[in-house]
């Protein structure tokens, strides 16, 4: 058995751990229901204006130029090459929609010289609604598949607690985005799905360690087994999450406006996910009264126990 680097009785505070998580989930649900999410152009529709510059363009400079000219809430990104710039604008009044592409190109020409309008297309709200519905189905399908996998791979206790931790992570991320009115678009959705994968990986590590320790620590109580398991995986979880967060902080600082939502969602999700995969999962299995017999078959005699040894 791996010697733990810590000796902290985590389950002594299992009630506060679960209480904090429940409070965050309730606040997030109320926040989402009250404020709603600020959906991006991927979900609301709008105008896509494709342009080509004579020289390589900086998307952040282009965005600020358009904003100063009165084209607020637009999204600017490169595609294909550094001279190809895609501008996405929110829905406009019907009369302004057809002229929007020409107006944007005229503004860019004044600031950057020769700029060519490649095409200008309107994406209707029907497409946006379809993307929104498919996004919701993707998250629900991910949770369902994960629950089935953990149920057959471990036990129902771990399956329920793991999915509860994942739902907790998703709701907290969405709740924070709703609270601060940050834009929720496809890049943020991708980050949420990445958080689901990251969190379930941590949850599986914790569940596997608890299961293995139930086999080895046959005279220990469930709380002692869980405390030892958490102390064993704590260093690994902190190092993994810490190095990932350093990369995400760098993206937040130098990544620009285009990927800011993606980096924010991942930063929040991994921070919350590390907490939930360790403390929510472990506390939940204790509250569900998981016993050794739920994890490993009982040993009939001491000889068999000695022969089996650690797995």
Can you describe this structure?
This protein is an alpha+beta fold and 311 residues long. The protein has helices at 14-35, 41-44, 59-68, 94-112, 125-153, 156-179, 186-216, 222-254, 260-287, 292-295, 302-308, and strands spanning 38-39, 46-53, 75-79, 81-89, 115-123, 183-184. The strands form 2 sheets. Strands 3-4-2-5 form a 4-stranded antiparallel beta sheet. The longest helix has 33 residues, at 222-254. The protein is elongated, with a radius of gyration of 25 Å.
Which CATH architecture of the largest domain is right?
Answer: Up-down Bundle
Mean pLDDT across all amino acids: 83
Q: What's the main sheet like? A: 4 strands, antiparallel
Roughly what fraction of the amino acids lie in strands?
Answer: 5-15%
The count of β-strands is 6
Distance between the termini: 9 Å
Structural class: alpha+beta
- The parts where pLDDT drops under 50 for at least 5 residues are 301-308
Give, in order, the helices and strands.
HEHEHEEHEHHEHHHHH
Q: State the domain count.
A: 2
CATH superfamily of the largest domain: Multidrug efflux transporter AcrB transmembrane domain
- What integer value in Å does the Rg equal? 25 Å
Shape type: elongated
By CATH reckoning, the class of the largest domain would read: Mainly Alpha
Number of helices: 11
- The CATH topology of the largest domain is Multidrug efflux transporter AcrB transmembrane fold
